[in-house]
Write a structure and sequence with these properties.
alpha/beta, eight-stranded mixed sheet, 19 helices
Length: 442
């Protein structure tokens, strides 16, 4: 609790200074796509209300914006939109909530990065009563993993709108030329990376995120597939045998078969490297595929998609809610805010957002053939295979997520830079993570 108070105070002080300085419905094809009428008149009884909707910078927003006038017309609810880049969004929300502002009424947020801090700070309205008691909304249609990703302390803190799973990207042409099958296990991934590693020809066997904090989400699937986790039974577990094996595998792939500057790569750099034709294998979120399918991509048409390879405990990739919608507890327009969320995350609108390439959490949309037209056929098959499996988090589940990621990332980076024995460093990092957990529990 002390840690939570420090985080709130630190954010508020820093950010206030900065601020001063500066489809049709699948059950009824006669209804219009995105129509609020498809979702049982969510605005009934609250016409004339105005809500402020704060968004992040995401392709999902590009689909929703043109549909909002239709929602306004059919419900009588006016929607004011404010958009920010990811880091700006967090800053904006923190300043507003610290000041106990009544706005925004509804907003986008990242459940696994900010959810625990925001909820325990009293900045997220519990949505259990709204969603769980509305049979037509069909909360059971959402994947269990997406709901768990959005749940804090037993309460539904937000509604999932965009999900991600880790998959394997590979060069179809290079694997075919080398006579190599698509890796189905992590061991096969290592073997394929070794055979396809030809830096003298400008092609490396493997690429992935190597920056300290960004790599944590991607090493998580390696960790889970070996039977480990960042935290087990409330205790830090990043020095377990399973964790050591996973960190050595991921770091070893980048050290032995990755580019020399891998340690400086987050997803934009790693995906660009792969898109330039400089790597044969690449593991990352399935949403990254857009960056590989541009006109500038040198591998366009030669990218294959496969489920995350199996480890000792099988294929256990993360399967998370990357973006959700939430309500400000101070809002005087909670019913109108919920009406908007109900519409935006309803089956008909989610069909439209998913058709535009934004993977969603609703099982019915994935079962609908129209729900996968926004993805390459092979990728859509992988989506359907993985959407209801995997692990519901991709980073340590703490209040101070950044500090926890730091401890994990530095262990993996030691492997990338050539450290051969990380056990002592892992013990030290584990002790630091445990101290963080103990402090947050006070």
């Amino acid at each position: 609790m002390k840690k939570l108070q420090l985080l709130q105070t630190g954010w508020a002080g820093l950010l206030v200074v900065a601020a001063l300085a500066g489809c049709s419905n699948s059950n009824n094809p006669d209804k219009q796509p995105g129509s609020a009428e498809n979702e049982a008149k969510p605005g009934e009884g609250i016409q004339g209300r105005t809500i402020t909707f704060v968004t992040g910078s995401h392709p999902w927003v590009d689909v929703i914006k043109p549909l909002i006038p239709q929602f306004e017309k059919e419900t009588g609810i006016n929607v004011r939109i404010q958009g920010y880049f990811e880091d700006q969004l967090t800053q904006k929300l923190t300043v507003q909530f610290t000041a106990r502002s009544e706005t925004p009424d509804v907003f986008m947020y990242r459940p696994l990065q900010e959810g625990k801090l925001f909820f325990q700070s009293g900045w997220l309205e519990p949505l259990d009563a709204y969603a769980g008691q509305d049979a037509e909304y069909d909360l059971g249609d959402f994947s269990p993993q997406s709901i768990r990703s959005s749940t804090v302390d037993g309460h539904l803190a937000g509604i999932p709108i965009v999900t991600e799973q880790q998959i394997l990207y590979y060069r179809k042409d290079l694997l075919k030329e080398a006579g190599i099958e698509v890796p189905a296990t992590i061991e096969e991934l290592e073997e394929a990376a070794a055979k396809l590693n030809h830096p003298e020809q400008g092609v490396y066997g493997f690429v992935a995120r190597g920056q300290r904090s960004p790599l944590v989400t991607q090493v998580s699937s390696f960790l889970y597939s070996e039977g480990g986790d960042f935290i087990k039974n409330g205790k830090a577990a990043i020095n377990s045998p399973e964790a050591i094996k996973a960190f050595e595998t991921y770091g070893g792939l980048l050290r032995n078969y990755g580019p020399p500057n891998a340690i400086n790569m987050s997803w934009p750099q790693a995906s660009a490297f792969f898109a330039q034709g400089k790597a044969a294998l690449y593991t990352d979120a399935n949403s990254i595929y857009r960056a590989l399918d541009t006109e500038e991509s040198k591998v366009r048409g030669n990218v294959g998609f496969a489920p995350f390879p199996s480890g000792t405990k099988g294929s256990m990739p993360y399967n998370i809610t990357s973006w959700g919608l939430a309500i400000n507890p101070k809002s005087p327009n909670k019913e109108a805010a919920w009406a908007f969320i109900k519409w935006a995350s309803g089956k008909s609108v989610m069909l439209l957002t998913q058709q535009a390439g934004n993977p969603g959490p609703r099982s019915s949309v994935w079962k609908d053939p129209r729900g996968t037209i926004g993805f390459p056929e092979q990728l859509a098959a992988v989506f359907r295979q993985t959407v209801n499996g995997g692990i519901d988090h991709d980073r340590p589940q703490t209040v101070d997520v950044a500090a926890a990621r730091e401890q994990v990332g530095k262990i993996v980076q030691m492997v990338i830079t050539g450290e051969t024995d990380i056990r002592q460093s892992a013990d030290q990092a584990n002790a630091a993570l445990q101290a963080l957990l103990d402090e947050e529990a006070e």
